[in-house]
Amino acid sequence: FRYDIRFPDGNTVTFNSRNGDLDEVTYARALVRDEVSVNLFERPLRSLVALGREHGFTPIVVYIPSAYTAYRHQAHFDDAGVERTLTEFSDRQRGYFARKAGEAGFVYRDLTPALQRAAAELPSTQRLYFRTNVHLTPAGHAVVAAEVAEEIAKDSAAAAVSPGNEMNDRNQIK
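Now predict its structure.
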């Protein structure tokens, strides 16, 4: 699947031009058809939370969306069916992690809003993702780093509120 991003500076750039990101569409279709479930993340998340309890840290799960989600308002797909499927795929994963964070005891940070804000502002010369392999560029990594640093600072501030307390308030770790 290929899609174009129409940037605020008026330029249009084709993404996934080598059509190399086919697995995502395959898994998205399977999820939308309920052939697979987002519950496949359950066991690894439980292991991560247990590791945090054992070693005294609060796990932070960060969702970094695919380029088409970060550029959702500027992305134009040749196949509207693929666009709908991928949108539901992203929305279902994000919803799952948001629900599980409270239940399982980890911090969840969805970077979709931050990356969408950056995508709406940055010109085509400062893309957040490489257009061919759709991995983050340095500009995309800068957004992620700032968001993660903010989340860590929140956790540090929460821990500093009650000095001497042996309990980490965020996940009840002793």
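Confidence is low (pLDDT under 50) at residues 161-168, 170-174.
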